Amino acid sequence: AGTQRARAGAQTSLHVPYGDGEGEKLDIYFPTDPSGTFPVLVYIHGGYWQCLSKDESGFAAPPLVSRGVAVVAVGYDTAPKGHMDAMVLQVRRSLAFLVERYSGIRGIYLCGHSAGAHLAAMVMSTDWTEYGVAPDIKGAVLVSGVYDLEPILHTYVNNALNMSREVAQRNSPMLCVTPAAPAAATCKVLVAVAQHDSPEFRRQSQEYGQALRAAGWSVSLLDLAGVDHFDIIEKLSEESYVLTQVREELPSSL
Questions:
Q1: What are the tens digits of pLDDT across the range 100-121?
Q2: pTM higher than 0.70
């Protein structure tokens, strides 16, 4: 319902292709007045890399677009069609596409939930020289994410993903933490976890947050009481944590 409201209210471009693949599409909710420059919140959906889609991702848009922030929901090929290497590549390419296509972008904020937080974290470890662009990532909100894929190898989640140990290792954000570049010093990372997330999720969020901090990133850990793995993202958007994160960075424009 939130997505339908968003689509009715904003200037939107749906299913914008950022590549040739079937799943390589973006939904872009532009701010009410998209003249000039605007910050962008890029939302990467969860679903254990095998369900959900960008089509359920518009719920975060209305409060943001009304305040001058564009919201982009990223589509990617979920398993079994998509492999982990390919999904990581797709979300990285989607960011490169946005930067090349829209000159008005002033600062990118990543937000991902669950598998989407994993993919957002992998975006943060990108060597952008390979892409010929330098996205100005100013913030990331990583919600109930998976940052070490090895424990998943032995669970039903891997049935569709079919990851080998090598694939799991090279796509584990914990093992890809890069020292914060000077630009990243201004990038604020919020690692959020739910009180009722499983102990494994809670452990991974804690350890990943600490690893980022040790590498010089600016990190806040948020442990949200009274929510579980699924309703934490609604809670965060309702209470505008995401909005606050963006707004703090952009007091003049919002």
A1: 999 999 899 999 999 999 999 9
A2: yes
- Provide the β-strand partners of residue 224: 194
H helix runs in the chain, sequence order: 2-9, 61-65, 84-101, 115-124, 157-161, 165-170, 199-214, 232-238, 241-249
Point out the catalytic residue in the list 114, 144, 172, 237: 114
* Interatomic CA distance for residues 109 and 15, integer angstroms: 20
Closest CA to 230 of 50, 83, 45, 91: 45
229 given a catalytic annotation: yes
Out of 27, 45, 113, 197, the active site residue is 197
Q: Return the structure tokens found at 50.
A: 């095998």
From the number of C-beta atoms within 10 Å of its C-beta (0-12, 13-18, 19+), residue 22 rates as exposed
Q: How far apart (Å, rounded) are the C-alpha atoms in residues 101 and 124?
A: 20
Please answer whether residues 65 and 30 qualify as being in contact, where contact means their C-beta atoms are separated by less than 8 angstroms.
yes
Of the residues 55, 77, 228, 229, only one is catalytic, namely 229
Compute the distance between CA of residue 30 and CA of residue 100 in angstroms, rounded to an integer: 16
